Amino acid sequence: MNMQTSQTRSRAGLAAGLRVSISRLSRRMRAEGGHSLTATQIAALGAVARHEALTPGELAEHEKVQPPSMTRVIAQLEDKGLLTRSPHPTDRRQVILSLTPAGDKLFKEERRRKEAWLAQRLGELTSEERAILRQAAPILERISRG
């Protein structure tokens, strides 16, 4: 086996290990939310919270879904009283999505629960393990923006 093949296998093994671990961590954190919303609905609330106000098309683009799919998610969140639509300030054909106070509260509570769970789990690690994760966090962020 030459060096190139060894590096490829090593990268492939790392990719497989990270995929499994990140998927499990993501599933576990979703389970910590303790609400009845889907992952897509929570992601949509998060995007609107981060960007303060988005059009439906911008939200679909941020979440990398087709606009018709996002239209359904928006309608579900509106029905639950978590999102509201208001007229776009310059384009009458558009609307702006914003979180309602209930949507903002639910999103913040969701984030708080997940962070509390993760902080507890991090507390079970050694200081060396936490230092490694501190170094890995910006790298994982860079990969996720991809």
Span between termini: 31 Å
Biggest sheet descriptor: 2 strands, antiparallel
What Rg is obtained from the alpha carbons, in whole angstroms?
19 Å
Question: What order do the helices and strands follow?
Answer: HHHHEEHH
Q: What's the number of domains?
A: 2
**What strand line-up does the widest sheet have?**
1-2
What is the number of strand segments?
2
CATH topology of the largest domain: Arc Repressor Mutant, subunit A
Q: Can you count the helices?
A: 6
Q: What portion of residues is helical?
A: over 70%
Ranges where pLDDT stays below 50 over 5 or more residues in a row are none
The CATH architecture assignment of the largest domain turns out to be Orthogonal Bundle
Would you write up a description of this structure?
The protein contains six helices and two strands; from the N terminus they run ααααββαα. It is mainly α. α2 crosses α3. It has a two-stranded antiparallel ribbon. Keywords: DNA-binding, Transcription, Transcription regulation. It comes from Actinoallomurus bryophytorum. This is DNA-binding MarR family transcriptional regulator. One of its GO terms (molecular function) is DNA binding.
